[in-house]
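I hope you will forgive my troubling you with a question about protein structure. The record follows directly beneath this note:
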Amino acid sequence: FQYYFGDINLPKDKFLQEKVKEDEGFVPLEVLLTFNRLKELSPDAEVIAAAIKKSDSGLIEVSIDNKKIRRSPEKPLPENTKEHREELTKRTVYCKGFPEDGTFDPIKSFLENYGPVDSLYLRRNGQTFKGSVFVTFKGVPDAEKFLGTETVKYGDKELIKLSKNDYYKKKTEEKRKSKLEKEEAAKAETAKEFQEVRAGAILNLEGFGEGISREDVRNFFEDFAKVSWVDYNPGDPKGQVRFSEENQAQVALDKAKEANGGKLEINGTVLEGRVFEGKIIAYLGD
């Protein structure tokens, strides 16, 4: 109950925020006992009310009829100032290495060996516990003492400990590096799509007529050398064929003419072929 009405949980608990507005801050115990963690303590509201009255923290106040509780008006929530947020951050530690089947109470009890715990947040991926927490200690010295402890083990596993500030700095740096890696990968992928065409690998063609497709051109020259790419749109008078290997344009041209009685003929159309002499940068993407 101290946790639910505490400085950290109450300001961000929308459900409780609505409830405390209804009855001068009082919330019925029967409502609170719908919370699974509280129900596990005891399903009996009278027992809970009696236990709260014995607490010397003074944070929780019980109604006269023992059926409702509220945060004591004498201990209002701290103002949400910059100073308060900074102090809260200094008291908060990121801690990783707990088992994924770990639960709130055992982890909180373990951490309380290192100092009074004000709040504990189990980080989850959906419903699955990620094995890491944010723990807020009662005071900055408690957090600093925990961070300064050389080795902290939960069971047989050593825990990773970082101040909240250091954790977010680390995540920011990881995101920066990840972004750079993605950018470099994108550049490398783009570089693959552009390359200098090997010398003597391009054959310029002229004289196209009707009834010749890009596939017709590719299939025709594939019989003489490996074709990498065909630049031709049906209806255009000119086109190009790029071969995979250096100096294969002349080889393919000679073989094609030899196979067709000295002519370069595709689907009944005689073309003029000339090897492009020089180097160009070609885009190889879609």
